[in-house]
Amino acid sequence: MSNLEEKIPSRQVMVDTQIGHTINKMRKHEDKDIALAAKKVYFKWKTFFKEKRDKPKIEVRSDLKTEKMREAGRKFIKEALGKHHKGLAENIEVETFQCYKRLISAEYKKTIRKIIFTLRHQEEVKRKTVAGEMKVNDLIKLCSKA
């Protein structure tokens, strides 16, 4: 248990091995020392992943062609949403870019176009997005599958 306390496995390892479930069950162990050690490990891992999730992702500048393409996408999304939603437009574009592994691919371009047309022509989706009723990731999923 002391070895586990020193290390924090990746999220993928935790999902594959389900070690988090095992540690959580061990918090209820009859032996108080084991339960206490498991509790320490559990909360250490939990706080680590919460902090990691809440940290903003670092935005790295890309080459000129990529930046121009992304800026054009932001501009058209902003026009589709309305001039007062620049932050939301930027957020939509950044999340879309992240979904496509930070590459300007044909799929990224198609998804950006679909987002723009969806926001222009489907008032209900636009209203929900602006009001925050529809998450940005849900909008991206809706437009990438369509």
TrEMBL record:
A Pfam family per the record: Med26
GO biological process terms, semicolon-separated: DNA-templated transcription
UniProt-recorded name of the protein: Transcription elongation factor A N-terminal and central domain-containing protein 2 isoform X2
Domain TFIIS N-terminal: 1-52
Subcellular location: Nucleus
Superkingdom of origin organism: Eukaryota
One of the record's GO cellular component terms: nucleus
Principal location class: nucleus
Organism: Lingula anatina (Brachiopod)
GO MF entry, a single one: translation elongation factor activity
Keywords annotated in UniProt: Elongation factor, Nucleus, Protein biosynthesis
InterPro entries: TFIIS/LEDGF_dom_sf, TFIIS_cen_dom_sf, TFIIS_N
